[in-house]
Protein: MBL fold metallo-hydrolase
Organism: Qipengyuania vulgaris
Amino acid sequence: MKLIMLGSGTSTGVPRVGNDWGECDPLEPKNRRTRVSIIVENSSGQRILVDTSTDLRAQLLATGIGKVDAVFWTHDHADHCHGIDDLRVMRYDRSNPLPGIAGRVTCERLRRRFDYVFAGQFGYPTIVDLKETSEVQLVAGFSFDNVEMPHGPVKSTGFRFEADGKSLVYATDFSEITQAMIKCFKGCDLLVVDCLRERPHPTHAHLDMALELASKVKARSTILTHLDKSMDYGTISAKVPQGVSVGFDGMEVRL
């Protein structure tokens, strides 16, 4: 199984509009971050896309990815779903819509906001066949589990994907560690985890919380993501313990 990190930044990316790099060194390419999204690929070459970030088209072009076999959404915040229209080209050579998976509330909100994607419109075909997480167990050669995570006043879905005898957890956009999360993520081979900044934040995990989750689930390796402009790649890389890496756009990890 392979992880491809399409984007590793927070909702405004790094640099922010106005060329605001914050504390990030602009000369370090790994500090240039688009909005978060990942690809998970199995040994058969089947790919799952998690979240359709605002920067999806540029991310897919940069990584040379022209098709995916299923799409998962963690929640409906703009930075995680507003690149959804870039899925249209992946429908062109398919006889049926792309499988799509999300939690119940996220499904409801996506259908309201992007009705043409899930029901077709004006003669255009349906792009995604969207189902709730409770309706599906196997997708595109992967089995998966999921858990709802507190994300400030709303919820985000954490996913655990399994294939080829390995497990990968994607837990972004959470503000509290719950026992249900620990149970779902326990013993994973790779944890990709929310880590907005070093200081606590009301709706996101900060560095200590991200490391706490990695310790509690006994993740074999951990990658930090959803990083803001205060999280300089070199500075944070020097602070994290062994087995923990700072994520960056285009990063690839084979499990």
About this structure: Residues 2-11+34-249 form a domain with the Metallo-beta-lactamase; Chain A fold (CATH 3.60.15.10). The radius of gyration is 17 Å.
